[in-house]
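Now for a specimen:

…
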Amino acid sequence: MPEFSLPIFWLLLLIVLGVVEIFTQGLATIWFCGGALVAAICAIIGLGLPVQIGAFLIVSIILLVFTRPIAVKKFNPKTISTNAEALIGKNGVVTAEIKEFAPGQVRLNGLEWTAVSFDDTFIEKDAKVLVKKIEGVKLVVTKMRWIKQEDDMENVFGLIAGFRVANCYNFIDCNEYQNSTSGTGICFGKTWSLS
């Protein structure tokens, strides 16, 4: 490559990498734009091709390693759950009994899912269940148990949050009660408060 075209090459590479970053928005090629800019400056001041390539690689790697994690946190603050991940913690209803070591069916969000028991126990039809995890295309569920609390729920939920719930029917393993940080909320139609 002739010496006079090296600055143009690096600037064109910078533009191409910038366009790729604009269309992908993956915070991957932008760091190489910085390397191409430094290499172009090296070419303009007359440094040789090996120095330009070295500057390109060193600056690109430094930017990628040290600034990408900061930029990812700033521009992508939340990880968006996939459809499968979004089901974890949701409640469903058993439509075909789940036997100890055989799958059954659960209706969740209007769809039928193959499901197995989290602890390999029998779960009868029409039982309410909580999705604990997903294995392949199967939901792994646990049966929801009703409890009625009068005053102090610290013995039931103490390990989770350590608060009291007054006059509320609730599911053990249900995430509903954890969603409020304001001090009060609604739990299956009943009012509760944190203390």
